[in-house]
User: Fold these one by one.
Assistant:
Number 1:
Amino acid sequence: MTSHQKLVMIKAIHTIIWCMFTFIFSYMMYAVIVDKINLYVWIGLLLFGVEIVVLLIYKNHCPLTLIARRYSSSTKENFDIYLPLWLAKNNKVIYSFFLFVFFCGVIYRYWQ
């Protein structure tokens, strides 16, 4: 397998994982909005917790990004994932904001 093929495979896997987390997070936000906080919400939160721990361990970098660096010299934020540049660049800020909104929603629902 060539370096380019390996990079394409890593980008595809990274994008699929990103889509999975986006779907999970969308469900979590939906559950808070409709007041249906259930086991799936807590499992989703656990998965996000694992993701945060992994990012902390790897100094705010996804392990797939570190692997992809072996096959590319690009300095673009989206060299390792099939996302628009602006989204790849701001992904952590966007998710952090919405996680904060999610936690506020969960707290609100439990105080009702």
Note: The chain is about 75% helix and 0% strand.
Number 2:
Amino acid sequence: MSGGLIVVQDFFKILHKMATFEKLGLSEEVLHVIKDKKFTEATEIQEKTIPLINEGKDLIAGSATGSGKTLAFGAGIIKKSLKGGGIQALILTPTRELAEQVAVHLEEFSYYSKLEVCSVYGGVSMEPQTKKLSYAEIVVATPGRLLDHLNRNSIDLSRVKFLVLDEADRMWDMGFKNDVAKIVNACPKNRQTLLFSATISAELADFSSKYMNSPTEISVDNYVDASKLKQVYYDVPDNGKFSLLVHLLENEDAHLVMIFCNTRRNVDFVVKNLKLQGISAQAIHGGLTQAKRNLVLKRFDDSKVNVLVCTDVAARGLDITSVTHVYNYDTTRDARDYVHRIGRTARAGKEGVAISILGSRDYDNFANVQRHNPELKIENVTTPNYKKVFVKVGGDDSRGRFGEKRSFGRGAPRRDSRGPRRDSNRSSSGSSRGPRRSNFRSGGGGGQRSHGNTSQRSSGNTSQRSSGNRSGRFGRSDSRGPRRDRPSNRNRNFR
């Protein structure tokens, strides 16, 4: 009997939350979808923006990844779009993955409205897109491919009532400012313009003054629940980063893991060597075909692969649920991207862990992250003992090596009780201060800090040397190849 009472109480809770959505002015068709998907409550961005969008106002909304903004702008679009009325809504996104994801969500929300949603992005044939554009009501596109269609006269924007810029700051960072301006000029002037961005830069403010009609500004709190997110960093020698990563992956109680690198080359290196260690990992970055990227994301989202190694292209906007651990194998250069990375976990009330593995080349970036995000509490934790891992440096390169194996990593370095040394003028956040930057460019054996174990400064094989930070996977490559006449005790730059 008591079990039945609980069921009835839960039912009335759902009705109460549905009433909350109904008060936002959603259409019956969208409310039906919300009921089917068992959404329990509106997010802050939805509560603040949907009524204003329904009133026809232009908006500048500051919102982080995972805040529910697709439903926020999608609800108004679906409510005011007519079946068979031509392209009435255009959503611009910075990446192919985000375009595909937004299109899928809009298809779900418009299920009972029978509206056609077309995703338009590069890397695939234009002809199927051209065919669907002839009868679509909603288009989600990346700027470059949309311009291709405009130049070919295969898209008609004359009936657009809604123009949405999703992840606008990212589009500007990627150099799409001029492309977006051309697209905006091709849309009717009496449209409603909605700009969603994690940050509002001076350039975005300039855009709004030129192309938006007295926009209302909305901001919401960061979607990452700090009480649910544990942030830590390990300070290790450069030649111990990958070995520690393997150790943590093998010993952490993780479900789905995202590992972030700054370059495609590092992503491929990490994935290849994780597989050699028997760890199921897949890569996603801009160098893969769109079909491959879509397949990888689907396998990860379906938990068929539990480790995704990626560049920041995957940090923005992608709706990947149930991520328990985020690893920063490379520390991002942009402090904002750090927040987007860790925002992949600790979502929807679940706990998560963000782990940064710092080598000497990460120190400046890490200090920048802390300086621009003083509210972050990133704890320095003691490095555990970890075993050496052998890595394969695949591919034929300028030095004529192919697939040779290198030993790198070692047991936990000796540390004094005070932890790693730090500069007195290094900025800090909370009780955690950034690690000391070593003099990586110095000559002889004085470059890389070895945490009290100087025997690791030399591999004893001058033909496999990486000097300073001019070669190796973290810095600029010297196309002339390594110099052979450097002293044998030169600092090595292994993983």
Note: The chain has two domains: 2-219, 229-418.
